């Protein structure tokens, strides 16, 4: 993976990294491989592409629509 952006948060003793990786396991491996990795507390949050996520929802709703009949006529 690669680091896309890195921010340091003054006063909080924190930093924020946006990285592009193929899996959660890869980011954990990258962090734990750092010399200071064993002394760090970290949280990971996946980011999803909005358009791709919406395509998935639309496909799911269309499939659900086919499963149920429309209102009585």
Automatic annotation (TrEMBL):
InterPro entries: Dimeric_a/b-barrel, MLI_dom. SUPFAM superfamilies: Dimeric alpha+beta barrel. It holds the Pfam family MIase. Residues 1-51 form the Muconolactone isomerase domain. This is Muconolactone isomerase domain-containing protein. It comes from marine sediment metagenome.
């Amino acid at each position: 993976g690669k680091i896309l952006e890195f921010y340091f948060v003054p006063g909080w003793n924190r930093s924020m990294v946006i990285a592009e990786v193929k899996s959660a396991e890869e980011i954990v491996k990258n962090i734990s491989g750092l010399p200071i990795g064993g002394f760090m507390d970290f949280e990971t949050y996946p980011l999803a592409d909005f358009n791709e996520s919406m395509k998935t929802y639309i496909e799911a709703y269309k499939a659900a629509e086919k499963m149920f009949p429309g209102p009585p006529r």
